[in-house]
């Protein structure tokens, strides 16, 4: 299984802390976030990686190289203009050869990615989305499933909503068919493709225990730093 890491983010919300550093290179415990992510993939025997880079691509390449010291083999797909998450994946279509793992470049989940691929296969789905339970769904939006584990709805962020909810953990197992749904040019995996898959019953979800970390905001980064910087 090859992993596609979406690492083209500008890191706008982290600019006050890290300046113009590409978001995926933000340090956790003194090491680039993406380096930790590569090692996590390697620890689960996912060693063939395509880094979908954009802003700061050369700095990302300098930091990660060919992935050898991190236990992986890295190839790069570099966008010359912002294409969104869906567009970045479409640009990297030439690397697709079989079942894939799509990983947000600012997310690190404490789980076994192969469990997600097994869930996708068992459901006969085009994609399987990792879900994690959080106590603040208002900040992320919710993912609703039926009793068979099929995704039926993505709820927008709902200020004031209390309780816990299941949210997108930034990890998707997918078949090559998913790329046929992506248009050329800019598009969004989260706002366009995933809802379309859910609408026609092609997207299942796996509710996972444990925690996932992201670094999308200063508060999120600080939470991850407490975990990995200890």
Describe this entry's structure for a reader.
The protein is α/β, with parallel strands linked by helices and 230 residues long. The protein has a single domain (2-228), classed as Alpha-Beta Complex (Spore Coat Polysaccharide Biosynthesis Protein SpsA, Chain A), CATH 3.90.550. Helix content is 30%, strand content 29%. The protein has eight helices and 13 strands. It has helices at residues 15-18, 33-43, 57-64, 84-91, 113-123, 177-180, 189-199, 218-228; strands spanning 2-7, 27-28, 31-32, 48-53, 73-78, 100-104, 107-109, 127-134, 142-145, 151-155, 165-174, 203-208, 212-214. The strands form four sheets. The chain has a seven-stranded mixed beta sheet, sandwiched between helices. It has a two-stranded antiparallel sheet with strand order 2-3. The model has no long low-confidence stretch (mean pLDDT 90).
């Amino acid at each position: 299984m090859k992993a596609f890491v979406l690492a083209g983010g500008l890191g706008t919300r982290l600019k006050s802390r890290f300046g113009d550093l590409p978001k995926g290179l933000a340090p956790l415990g003194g090491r680039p976030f993406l380096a930790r992510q590569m090692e996590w993939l390697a620890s689960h025997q996912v060693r063939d990686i395509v880094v979908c880079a954009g802003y700061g691509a050369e700095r990302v390449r300098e930091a990660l190289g060919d992935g050898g010291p991190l236990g992986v083999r890295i190839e790069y797909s570099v966008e010359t203009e912002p294409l969104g998450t869906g567009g970045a994946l479409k640009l990297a279509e030439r690397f697709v050869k079989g079942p894939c793992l799509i990983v947000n470049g600012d997310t690190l989940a404490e789980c076994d990615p192969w469990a997600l691929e097994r869930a996708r296969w068992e459901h006969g789905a085009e994609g399987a989305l990792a879900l994690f339970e959080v106590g603040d769904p208002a900040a992320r939006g919710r993912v609703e499933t039926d009793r068979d584990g099929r995704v039926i709805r993505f709820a927008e962020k709902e200020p004031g909503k209390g309780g816990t909810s299941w949210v997108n953990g930034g990890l998707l197992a997918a078949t090559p068919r998913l790329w046929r749904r992506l248009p050329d040019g800019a598009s969004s995996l989260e706002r366009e493709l995933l809802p379309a898959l859910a609408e026609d019953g092609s997207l299942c979800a796996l509710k996972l225990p444990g925690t996932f970390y992201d670094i999308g905001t200063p508060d999120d980064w600080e939470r991850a730093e407490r975990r990995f910087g200890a």
